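Appendix B. Extra example for self-study. Work through it before the problem class; the solution is given directly after the inputs so you can check yourself.
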Amino acid sequence: MNDDEKFTLDERREIAVNKLKSLGEVIIEDVSKDKVPSLSVPSRGTSNIYYDKEKRYYVLGERTGSRSLGNVKQVKKIGQMVYMANFCKDLVSRQKTATIREMYYVSEGWGVDFNTQQESNIVGEDLEVMLGMTREELGLMPEEDGASVYGDLLIGEDDLEINALKAGKSGYTISPTIDEVEFLECNVDRVIAVETMGMFHRMVQENAYKKFNCLIVGLKGQAARATRRFIKRVNTELNLPVYICNDGDPWGFHIAQVIISGSAKLAHVNHSLATPDAKFMGVTATDIINYDLPTDPLKDVDVMRLKELAKDPRYKPEFWQNEIKKMLKIGKKAEQQSFSKYGLEYVVDTYFPEKLEEFEKTE
Amino acid sequence: MNDDEKFTLDERREIAVNKLKSLGEVIIEDVSKDKVPSLSVPSRGTSNIYYDKEKRYYVLGERTGSRSLGNVKQVKKIGQMVYMANFCKDLVSRQKTATIREMYYVSEGWGVDFNTQQESNIVGEDLEVMLGMTREELGLMPEEDGASVYGDLLIGEDDLEINALKAGKSGYTISPTIDEVEFLECNVDRVIAVETMGMFHRMVQENAYKKFNCLIVGLKGQAARATRRFIKRVNTELNLPVYICNDGDPWGFHIAQVIISGSAKLAHVNHSLATPDAKFMGVTATDIINYDLPTDPLKDVDVMRLKELAKDPRYKPEFWQNEIKKMLKIGKKAEQQSFSKYGLEYVVDTYFPEKLEEFEKTE
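Solution. Structure tokens for the complete assembly:
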């Protein structure tokens, strides 16, 4: 979806169908002109991916490659792409979705089926990048659901209205079709996303949603595409500031960073997934020291990862450089649940208020 | 929870608090009689675990061990147990819960803290088995949430009523506190549990909940304790037959089997988790042949696992023995999503109706 324009769900479906059709029309046009059909596909090689300082996330460069029916090696790939586009056109027209796994099996019936799921995923990404749409917009869904959301947000799914405060203690689950839901009413001031469901349940139990008038998002580790899309949407459409609290280790840092700045692998869709204004709240190396948290020593693999992050353009801001250096210096990491050392309520009663005050005073 | 008796949530909390108190009282009584305090703990060694043919799940035998404060090696363990019991008593009295991870960190403040999470988990299981209660009843929760549920079941969580048909496309999430929810109204005839969320979403999209008047349960792989407890409760309290549809491989078989007959490791709580009347619907080796499904060859590790299962008492029924033999013979396995070969709707339009008819005609 282009973030500059707002289309209704029906309009977006129509756009997808038209773009998918145009793929076939390009080929037909070439044939009718007695030209060997070829398609131009933006390159997704590492040399064509760069970090855009203005946008603050990874984007694709201008380089494209071409897939020609005159090239024996590329014939099968074009065939697969056309079949997949046709399958997607059918999906979107019928307002259905399929998992990428299901599509892999459906392709058994095509003359140009895939040898592996990996192969069909790549063609799916080719379609995304050629059409400038996410695969979810083309009806293709990942297997896994997204995060859990708890708080006073009224969500519209078709004719259904769901209040994420009243969907149960485990909250409303972000489904892969998150782009089809509407935000009908929002009565919160901010979003606090946490890495573990353990912390999510702690926050629900301690009434954090009331105390901070926030949405609580339980990321369940690395955020699914649907979760990233949800976070971007609440940030841009509802103007809610987003704070992320993960484990204080390189993996927790990076779960936050992918939400903030996107990933290189998905450079072609980061414009709809990255939330550059989201803030990493903690657990920072500074928190580990200031709150005297129970820690584990950094393992070799943690140290290696921290050094990698230090060189990554997304970690260039001074804040990150300092925290990475500090963590390497103390040689320790801490989990977000380690605040329980001071009692179960401490994280909600003391840590979050102190951090939020710090953030919101500087804004 | 004892399945023969029905207690209200408040009564169950009172029972838990009293049982936890009694643990301390046993020690105080010993001391007041000038005896060296000791506690009797049912043994959880493999020689004390057996498959109960009547009950159709693993149970603990009669053997117990003793933990004595006169034994230097056991002093710390008893100390940990008493601290943990006290912590749980406090949790239950305050109607709170903590994750086992949080408890591990809370124990940092005790003089007898744990070296590893593993160590604290074992003491938690000791408490379960000594008191004859699940750790959830003692306020200790795992990190992860349970399955997703979609269908016409009205659930009561404290003052909140949630219809699992109206909680969103990803359904109602079973939280670790599932024993605290009430089933207020149920308008379905059966439960169909499936291994993957891909299949769950397919069923929601194809209106399987209407077609089969069923609850759809998305297991998300190996079923969490909360999921198993939910399935047992809908089976026994609401008299709903339960059908499980997983991948057609030893791992899919066993995900179903643990729901049906429980695990050896949790022999002491299987009475509240196992659902011996639940049925494995498929994907069977027979299905792979009859439906001519796309397959993968069995790997060595699959073959090994199938041979292990063949010797497991839970797989003694003729049905299982036949299916294991047949799978070994054809040397192939199939995923539940492989029905998509015949189109996305096939699994709901053809496979499920045929299998359900077969099951329900023989009942």
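Self-check: Chain A has a mean pLDDT of 93. If your reasoning did not lead you there, revisit section 3.
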